[in-house]
Amino acid sequence: MLLLGLMTWAGCANVPQVPIRQPIQKPMHFEHGEFTEVLQKYVDEEGMVDYAALKTDRGKLDAYLIRLAQNDPDRLPELERLAYWINVYNAFTLKLVLENYPVRSILRITPLPIPGKTSAWDLESVTVGGKRFTLTAVEHEIIRKEFKEPRIHFALVCAAMSCPKLRREAYEGIRLDEQLTDQAVVFLSEKHKNDLNPSADTIRLSKIFSWFASDFEQDGQTVQQYLSRFFPYEDLLRTKLQKNAFKLRYTDYDWGLNRKDKK
């Protein structure tokens, strides 16, 4: 494991970091078109990424990452700011995988042995507004802490097979509510991740609903009650979820890389 960590760190050390140019901009609006172009070209309908091809054609992704690094989202309206940070998480996760590709799982990307630093999420791999962040900080200290929006768990993609599908377009503030709800519906419909049979006594949910149960239990509701909103009115499944009628079990989490050639 030590050797693997040293080899991975050495590989990352030889990759140019996202350059920062001064001054840092504080926009009132931010365009994510470059990221949408990348996603439409290298992500398929199943959310699988062609990392091999993207690694040889990183121009647009790198240009987008540089703009993220040079801009401070603090002045953006709230929905645009949330969309910005979701895109930050997903885009810099792609960058991290590409810097270590070929790799079978994001779990195999590890920093040098440092107390308390054991995974890819502990690397300061993100640059926004001229500041360095870990993926952990982006998710837990910024997105979850500042926005209190449970649907982000259907949008943040950590490059694993059991994650939600990587959307083939960037998130945009003006469409964010629609996009997040669509992500939820799609994620809940994937039976290998969430198996919700209305005639059964037990439903099987992604471990995401166990790990982040407190996010979905806001305002005194249960996880089941929260999920009921994503199913049609008068639907038996919606009714039973609202009544907490099911026992909950959780599906195994596949940390294999969400690469296009893996089916």
What attributes characterize this protein structure?
263 residues, mainly alpha, 2 domains, two-stranded antiparallel sheet, two-stranded parallel ribbon, globular, disordered N terminus
Task: Report on this structure.
- The chain folds into 2 domains: 188 residues, no CATH class; 49 residues, no CATH class.
- The protein contains 11 helices and 4 strands, in the order αααααββααβααααβ.
- The radius of gyration is 19 Å and the shape is globular.
- The chain is mainly alpha-helical.
- The strands form 2 sheets. It has a two-stranded antiparallel sheet with strand order 1-2.
- The N terminus is likely disordered.
**Structural class by secondary-structure content:** mainly alpha
How would you describe the shape? globular
Average pLDDT metric: 91
Cα end-to-end separation: 28 Å
CA-atom Rg in angstroms: 19 Å
Order of helices and strands: HHHHHEEHHEHHHHE
